[in-house]
Amino acid sequence: MNAMRRKALKTTGSITLLGTLLAAGVFRPVVAFAAATWNKAAFGTTSVDDTIKQLGGTSAAESKDITLTAPDIAENGAVVPISVTSILPKITSISILIEKNPNTLAASFNIPEGTEPNVNTRVKMGETSKVHALVQADGKFYVTSKEVKVTLGGCGG
To answer: Which of 20, 28, 77, 90 has the most CB within a 10 Å radius?
Structure first.
């Protein structure tokens, strides 16, 4: 038997076995976890207050226990680095909101218990705007803000 035929039979057998196990329910294809937890309504909001409401809050209190690191001037609005960390206890989520973007909520991270509440990402900004770090801790929302000037647009710019 030649090597190519053996390889073809082996591959076919593996695919048949996998198909049988899927049909029997032993393996279940799972839709991406993010799709199950994605809050479509929150990512469609156009104001900070609406975003907080869609995330389950009524308002957010200013907090000095949140550190938002972002450039004062972003030379390219398509890739603005943002970091958020906090020392608040019982943090369950950290979100980044950008006031003047078409959709206010730029990113949202669930923070599992026992995880260090520190996120780093890059966001798009269409124009100079206030950036808000929104932290949910112990069922309440806290926020800190910083204005970032954009010299070259990112969102539609």
So the answer is: 77
What does the alpha-carbon distance between residue 99 and residue 88 come to, in Å, rounded to a whole number? 24
Taking the domains of the chain in order of start, what are their residue ranges? 1-30, 37-150
- Whole-angstrom Cα distance, residue 24 to residue 97? 45
d(CA 108, CA 37): 11
Q: pTM for the full model?
A: 0.73
DSSP H or E stretch at residue 114: none
Tokens of 100: 């003047």
Question: Which CATH code is given to the segment(s) 37-150?
Answer: 2.60.40.2470
Give 20-30 pLDDT, tens digit per residue: 766 776 656 55
